[in-house]
Design brief:
Blueprint (H helix, E strand, L loop, with lengths): L7 E2 L10 H6 L6 E3 L2 E3 L3 E3 L15 H12 L4 E8 L17 H14 L5 E7 L10 H8 L4 H11 L9 H10 L2 H7 L2 H9 L11 H4 L1 H19 L3 E6 L4 H6 L13 H4 L1 H14 L4 E7 L10 H14 L3 E5 L22 H6 L4 E2 L9 H13 L6 E3 L6 H9 L5 E3 L2 H5 L3 H6 L14 H7 L41
Parallel strand pairs: 4-5, 4-12, 5-6, 6-7, 7-8, 8-9, 9-11, 11-12
Antiparallel strand pairs: 1-10, 2-3
Helix pairs in contact: 2-3, 3-10, 4-6, 10-13, 14-16
Bound molecules: flavin mononucleotide (FMN) and iron/sulfur cluster.
Length: about 500
């Protein structure tokens, strides 16, 4: 896991929990309107992939249990994990790319309604992603994936002074490169070939020589619109278009998007497809349905979009009619760590990944509320442009005073807490009931994120080994971890 050089180990911020009366008066627990609906409170569980779907992308019992557990804590809203909009194989990630997924998703909606007593709104995050292949061995790369071109031969001549390379068989070039040192590869292969060799093959939105990438602007609006319609059919209160982190739509917004077909280059062009997707979705689901967006306040990569781009995007998203703006940060492939052979590069392993889910091993600023200034700047600009579109912030928020302070100062409208809610799904409820001293506090050391990286069912280290013999508790396949937090009896009088 990446962390800043010479990191400071931060202590958790001191927590003063409100009394029930203070919580009742708090902005955090007052309702807020999102487009056509209301949230009962400004508390929010952002999307978290728990790795519990079937290989075919269906809802499972474990998914229902996972969301039921969050629903029991009655947050204002839960956003269901990134869910694939296409009908393609994508491992145990939820999918919504065909009508056959609707019944399972409907069950998920019903589960959350029941468990939250109707107090929690449920949105689903819609994602599209491009191909990322596992890194292969050097031998396999040169045998199977490397195409010998004239420029490789010329580079070899230059490197060795031997003209013979211009005429030898491809097999001889491959055989030589297979055994060659890294420095030789550096001089013979181009940047993309080196990346594929060392990190595995990864598509970008700028690969317009590939017809399916060139045509993304033609196909994606309809694919997202159909997925959003299915979400409505399944009973979700709204959809969140995933325009953040390392995925297709964020790729279009990125300053690294240099497409020249009107969908890249200046930010007015980079936002074009994201707006076209929005309009197609809106047309399909109607004006009485929540359509939100998650996007980056800062990509945190060299040459990437910064806050000024994000402010522009935020205002344009609000102008277009999005019902909420959820601001995240980083989480990109460009600075990710080199994966081992046999594994795929993972977008949360570099500095941008750190900024997405900051830990206590941090710089002077520390992880707590670290991303709030991004949301605040976007909110200021959106409001100044005359829009009241609610802004959701997240990143290291874990105390009442932090959350209430952000709202009171007008830095954001809604408080998202992913890891703190994973550590204690009842924490919002405990605060509201004046029982904050019973909150299990996240330690922000990212054991959960490590599991996510290994594509293992995500759990929290604070509770996954506790009471494993509790009747009916779902366990991991090896039986060593419970998959949901222990129950908390909120009705019990003290
Ligand atoms: C296990 C895990 C899975 C995540 N999956 C998603 C996801 O599917 N979509 C998304 O936008 N963010 C995802 N995130 C990022 C969180 O939504 C959130 O932005 C981040 O954890 C920072 O907030 P926090 O400090 O409250 O945890 C994930 C985070 C974790 C820890
Ligand atoms: S494993 Fe638990 S305590 Fe650790 S960061 Fe994740 S949610 Fe927080």
């Amino acid at each position: 896991m990446w962390h800043p050089e010479n990191p400071i180990r931060h202590r958790l911020p001191p927590a003063r929990w409100p009394t029930r009366q203070e919580a009742e008066r708090a902005l955090l627990f007052t309702p807020i309107r999102i487009g056509p609906i209301w949230l009962e409170s400004r508390t929010w569980v952002p999307a978290m992939v728990p790795w519990r779907a079937t290989e075919e992308g269906y809802v499972t019992r474990n998914i229902l249990d996972w969301y039921a557990r969050f629903a029991a804590g009655q947050p204002g809203a839960i956003v269901v994990e990134a869910t694939g909009v296409r009908d393609i194989k994508s491992g145990p990630l939820l999918r919504i790319g065909h009508d056959r997924f609707i019944p399972g998703l409907r069950q998920l909606v019903e589960t959350v309604r029941r468990q939250s007593g109707g107090h929690t709104r449920l949105f689903i995050q819609l994602i599209d992603f491009l191909t990322v292949k596992r890194r292969v061995s050097k031998e396999k790369y040169f045998d199977r994936f490397f195409t010998v071109k004239d420029r490789h031969r010329r580079a070899l001549v230059e490197l060795t002074g031997d003209e013979r390379w211009l005429d030898v068989d491809d097999a001889e070039v491959r055989a030589f490169l297979k055994l060659a040192a890294d420095e030789v590869h550096d001089r013979v292969l181009d940047e993309r070939e080196l990346e594929t060799l060392r990190y595995g093959y990864r598509e970008r939105v700028t690969d317009v020589h590939l017809p399916h990438i060139r045509d993304l602007p033609k196909v994606l609006p309809e694919i997202f619109a159909a997925a959003a319609w299915r979400a409505r059919e399944a009973g979700f209160d709204g959809v969140e278009l995933h325009y953040a982190h390392a995925y297709t739509m964020a790729g279009f917004l990125s300053a690294l998007n240099t497409r020249t077909d009107g969908y890249g280059g200046p930010r007015e062009h980079r936002i074009r497809l994201p707006l076209e997707v929005y309009r197609a979705v809106r047309e399909r689901v109607g004006s009485d349905y929540v359509v939100g967006v998650r996007f980056l306040g800062d990509e945190v990569i060299e040459g990437g979009s910064r806050l000024d781009d994000a402010v522009y995007f935020g205002v344009e998203f609000a102008r277009a009619g999005f019902d909420y703006l959820s601001v995240s940060k980083g989480g990109k492939f460009e600075d990710a760590k080199q994966p081992k052979v046999g594994q795929a590069v993972y977008p949360y392993t570099g500095r941008s990944g750190y900024e997405c889910m900051p830990t206590v091993l941090s710089d002077e600023r520390g992880p707590f509320g670290r991303n709030v200034p991004l949301a605040a700047a976007i909110k200021r600009a959106v409001n100044a442009a005359g829009y009241a579109t609610p802004v959701v912030t997240s990143g290291g928020i874990c105390t009442f005073d932090q959350a209430e302070g952000i709202l009171q100062r007008g830095e954001a409208d809604i408080i998202g807490a992913a890891r703190q809610t994973l550590a204690d799904p009842d924490w919002f409820l405990k605060m509201r009931l004046g029982r904050g001293d019973e909150i299990r506090r996240c330690t922000f050391t990212n054991y959960c994120e490590g599991l996510d990286q290994m594509h293992k069912p995500v759990t929290c280290k604070l509770w996954d080994r506790v009471d494993l013999d509790e009747p009916g508790v779902p366990l991991s396949d090896d039986g060593r971890r419970r998959l949901v937090a222990p129950r908390w009896d909120g009705r019990r009088e003290r």
